[in-house]
Specification:
The structure is a homodimer of 378-residue chains. Chain A is 60% helix and 9% strand. Chain A is an alpha/beta fold and 378 residues long. In chain A, strand 4, helix 7 and strand 5 form a beta-alpha-beta unit.
């Protein structure tokens, strides 16, 4: 009887048993990584250790190969499991500067400010939040502050910084605005002590700072704020140092162009009014993803995006140049000049170099993931 | 001694043991799903059964909740594991029409044609490939064909179809071109028998047809080609029926707009020549993804994209309207009219409706996945 072919039901029951064991392993693993987290926060080791992650994956890939399991499957699963442990298991962090008496976060009740307040508190700092109605008491609040972090909307940043002329001489003044030249100049002008410009490259909905980028623009007194950068690293973030002007030029390309183009795409769709449901049902993974990248913009705060686009001085010039490129391309289509289009396409491809191929590989992984998530209940 | 806190090394060894068990479970599971695949191909059951997938996930989510494991973690892992089993375990498929003597795939050596040749062969059909140099023998090849599938580049499709005037009366004529109105009309004109327009919404690098969309535009004699649609469903694909003109209008929005905009973005970057490496290092997950979506275009065949953009008659009109929207938006930025921008933003948001929020949720999942994959070896 044992050699008879199993029925589908029997096979499915056996699969269910294995899946159940999988959940048990995850529960045990979470208990272990919680202990690792506790140990690390006591000893002061960073959460995210790229070498350990790479080694762990390498070992399991080798085992997978020997067992006839695709190594990429094991790698994908382990990365997903590790993400969860990064995001959920680390409740407290080592404090890199216990001598700091107080941190004041100006705008600490805002979306981004809240994250920093939370992270500082979980690292055993005393944190005070200064909101609009607290300005009458500001001097009192600043009195023994070791760090004042400005986390207010872009358009208010310079005005708020201009008020910070009475901080203690040794207090660090830092900001987390998404432009860097003007806030940094304003901080250097308002305050004679250590000054640091930061741009956290993540949204307020981030689950943890592990692997997130924080751009660092040095202002004055780098030795005095070294502990702060070390603290951010302890949270798992990756620091990228650059000059404030380089940063702003890059952001015009990265943020302004993309948000503006998504806005125009949305405006175009809303005006032409195609059947959105049909568009989605007819779309392949890549188009669904591109459409989602446009759609997601409009689920967010318009003021934030207006500020990003309108408050960058490079915007009008850069968007004008983009419009020129668009019209040149449109001319090629209107005059049916496919040959020239292909010629330019290849030239652009050589500008991108190896990055083009790498993007194809990277985005393919994501598109497969997008397919995994399709339930076809629609 | 047993109650002393474990060292980091000990904890890591225990984690490694669990990860090793995970790989063992995957190997056992793959053996079981291979058996399921064999069974299904014998009995003629489709690979992808949405209800089974949903039920399997539901059960493990419940178990996860009880075990203190995040249900979304278990769901993500199971979806990834199932993807692998969809893609690797199904070697053969039930043939839905064993009475068909022969299938001819015109352009069957091309990227997309090859996929259909492979799928038909794995479903026990006799498949013959007709390439350019085979035209002298074409009539012979078509003599006892039950299906002729045209899978040639867009620009050749109509000319190739025009030659297909001598197919057997009962032979099905179908195509897989990414436009549908013209090829369908050409097929109905050339052939008096059953005619079917298909548009597979996936690229030639697809690992399997599971969950992939195939657009169906009915031509003539739907009863005669019902087996073919059933066969495609057997491969795991999802059929979306629509009219040829609706399809082409939707593709102008979906394909032409996105590819053209990515092209312009690439042209803009190559012209302005910023430091690409720095742009990437300073980018948050969403910008890296958007940049990758542009970069990936230029790793691909320019002719294909030129054909898609230039051969759609709606292109010039639609791109012109997009340019108008762009200039209107640019005017708002140039005149610092933030209020009007925000007003329009909200109006577009209400056009997108629930889709905007859904995209935010969906794309966030993908961005987290993009973070998982970052190794920071750069």
């Amino acid at each position: 009887m044992a050699t008879l072919p199993s029925t589908l039901d029997e096979l499915r029951q056996q699969i269910d048993q294995l899946d159940s064991q999988l959940v048990e392993i995850l529960a045990k693993r979470a208990a272990l990584t919680a202990k690792v987290g506790q140990y690390k926060s006591q000893v002061g080791l960073p959460i995210y250790v790229p070498e350990r992650e790479a080694e762990l994956i390498k070992k399991r890939r080798q085992q997978a190969k020997q067992s006839g399991v695709p190594p990429i499957l094991v790698e994908d699963l382990l990365r997903r499991i590790m993400r969860e442990s990064y995001h959920t298991q680390h409740v407290n962090y080592l404090c890199t500067n216990p001598s700091i008496k107080k941190i004041v976060v100006v705008g600490g009740a805002g979306a981004l400010g809240r994250i920093f307040v939370d992270m500082f508190r979980r690292s055993a700092y005393t944190v005070v939040v200064l909101e609009q109605h607290d300005w009458p008491q500001a001097d009192e609040m600043f009195a023994d502050a070791g760090l004042v972090l400005v986390a207010v909307p872009i358009k208010l940043t310079e005005a708020v910084i201009a008020k910070l002329t009475t901080l203690p001489r040794n207090c660090i003044l830092a900001d987390v605005t998404s432009t860097k030249q003007k806030p940094l100049l304003a901080m250097l002008k308002a305050h004679q002590g250590p000054v640091l410009g930061l741009h956290p490259m993540f949204g307020p909905d981030v689950a943890s700072l592990v692997k997130q980028v924080v751009v660092v623009c040095h202002g004055r007194g780098a030795d005095d704020y070294a502990w702060l950068l070390q603290q951010i690293t302890m949270w798992g973030a990756i620091l990228q140092v650059c000059e404030a002007d380089e940063h702003d030029a890059a952001m015009a390309f990265i943020q302004v162009m993309r948000h503006f183009c998504s806005y125009v795409m949305g405006a175009h769709l809303a005006t032409e009014n195609p059947n959105l449901k049909q568009l989605i049902s007819l779309s392949s993974p890549i188009y669904r993803l591109e459409l989602a990248m446009v759609g997601r913009l409009f689920a967010q705060d318009p003021t934030l995006y207006a500020d990003i686009i309108f408050d960058n001085e490079a915007s009008v010039d850069l968007l004008g140049k983009f419009a020129q490129q668009f019209n040149q391309g449109l001319d090629l289509v209107a005059t049916k000049n496919k040959g020239e289009f292909i010629k330019r396409f290849l030239k652009i491809g050589s500008w991108f170099g190896d990055y083009a191929k790498q993007s194809l590989v990277d985005s393919k992984k994501l598109l497969l993931k997008a397919d995994d998530d399709r339930t076809w209940s629609e």
